[in-house]
Amino acid sequence: MKKALIIFVKNSVPGQVKTRLAKTTGPARALEIYERLLRHTNTITQVLDCDKWVFYADEIIKDDRWDNKTYCKALQQGKDLGERMRHAFQTLFEKGYSSVVIIGSDCMELSSSIIEGAFARLSRQEVYIGPSADGGYYLLGLTAMHNRLFQDISWSTDKVLLQTEERCRESGLQILHGPILHDIDDEEDWKNYLRTRAASSTLVFVYNADSDLFSTLTDYVHKLLSPATYACSLCALTHHHAGMRKAWKDFVASLPCKTLFLHKDQFGKLYPVYKETGLPAIFLAGKNQLRLLLPAAMLNELRTLEELIHALQTHLQQHDLDHYTSV
Considering only CA atoms, which of 36, 34, 27, 78 is closest in space to residue 55? Predict the structure, then answer.
């Protein structure tokens, strides 16, 4: 089965992307958020086993995040969203694809596995729809061209999904639905995403020291007598002989996500797969995933607590977990 993924994007021009978001955040911030959405869409689609087509709204950009070796590029054509989508589907079906899926660049909850699941279900179903919580859809998959699905639809309203389902029934098409996800259209959508992101994330700080009493006493003496030779740079930067430094305690309290502090023996028991990872280290734990955020080599190069905080904030920003702190 010859598969193709259509990715609809807008050209990154201030004031022309995320206009509803820009009403409250301003065009510059709206553009930043749209760029973040594009990065996410790029990340989850790179690995997919299908041909990938980026359809630009206004102008094809040759040298951008959409690598020319991975993505084919085309221009959207039509007076409204329905005409542009119809044209994109028609173009690819005429190129011989037997299964075509279209997505936009508005959904941070969309994943590679959801898109792969859509293609898998199209092997036995004519239409696959990923419904959005706002009454639209974030994904549409077809195995053949059905022009009726793009006609008489109130685009950009909460009626899009229902009207598309009506067109399917009128055409005798059976539908499979994917999970309900949330698009990012306005500032409240973005804030809800950030809250959800923070609630599902945990920063895991792992010291290069064991937790037993003997190790604790030995470490205390070592830090007191020869702090410059102490093996755990994370502990050396964030603690003094009397305990955690106040600036570090305040920073940790300001983080939007949960935090977990572990010694290396505790870490090895909780995450045995990672027990050979060099320590100290800082990890980001999410849904069934542990990601190395700051490795030992990087931590060991830091000389001050301020450097550590800045490095951590920079990495948190890349994962949308910086919104309660400032760089």
Answer: 78
For helices 246-254 and 305-318, give the axis angle rounded to 10 degrees: 10
Which residue, 163, 195, 227, sits at the end of a domain?
Answer: 195
Q: Are 212 and 86 contained in the same domain?
A: no
Give tens-digit pLDDT for 181-218.
Answer: 999 999 999 999 999 999 999 999 999 988 864 444 44
Cβ-based burial of 42 (10 A; exposed 0-12, middle 13-18, buried ≥19): buried
Residue with tokens 């740079």: 233
Shared domain for 44 and 174, answered yes or no, is: yes
What is the extent of the structural domain holding 79?
A: 3-195
How far, CA to CA in Å, does 307 sit from each of 67, 105, 175, 314? 34, 34, 53, 11
Write the DSSP assignment of 15-56 as a string of letters. TTSSHHHHHHH-HHHHHHHHHHHHHHHHHHHHT-SSEEEEEE
pTM for the full predicted model:
0.85
Indicate the SS3 state at residue 89. helix
For the chain, how many structural domains are there in total? Answer: 2
* Low-confidence residues of the chain: pLDDT under 50: 213-226, 229-230, 325-327
| Helix (H) / strand (E) containing 5 | strand 3-9
Q: Please, are residues 267 and 209 in contact by the beta-carbon 8 Å criterion?
A: no
- pLDDT per residue over 85-105, tens digit each? 999 999 999 999 999 999 999
